[in-house]
Amino acid sequence: MSNDPLDLINLTQPKDTSAEKFKNLELHQHLSTLLDHGR
């Protein structure tokens, strides 16, 4: 996970493009997987 300010902006204000939506969905699924394994 990058701490680059632009990455943070993209996460908090995602562009309305399919690429951004896919990236955010992928990130959400990855975080969900991590949470499931952390239980």
Highlighted features:
single chain, 39 residues, mainly alpha, 2 helices, flat
Helices and strands in order:
Blueprint: H1 5-12, H2 18-38
Folded structure, characterized:
It is a single chain. With 39 residues, this protein is mostly helical. It has one domain. The protein is 74% helix and 0% strand. It is built from two helices and no strands. It has helices at residues 5-12, 18-38. The model has no long low-confidence stretch (mean pLDDT 74).
Quick rundown:
This protein is mainly alpha-helical and about 40 residues long.
Average pLDDT number: 74
Total strands: 0
Number of helices: 2
Number of domains: 1
Rg on CA atoms, Å: 11 Å
The percentage of residues in β strands lies in under 5%
Gap between N and C termini, in Å? 21 Å
Low-confidence stretches: none
As a percent range, the share of helical residues equals: over 70%
The quaternary state of the protein chains shown equals: single chain
What is the H/E order?
HH
Shape estimate:
flat
- Biggest sheet, open or closed, and with what strands and sense? none
Assign the structural class, choosing from mainly alpha, mainly beta, alpha/beta, alpha+beta, or little secondary structure. Answer: mainly alpha
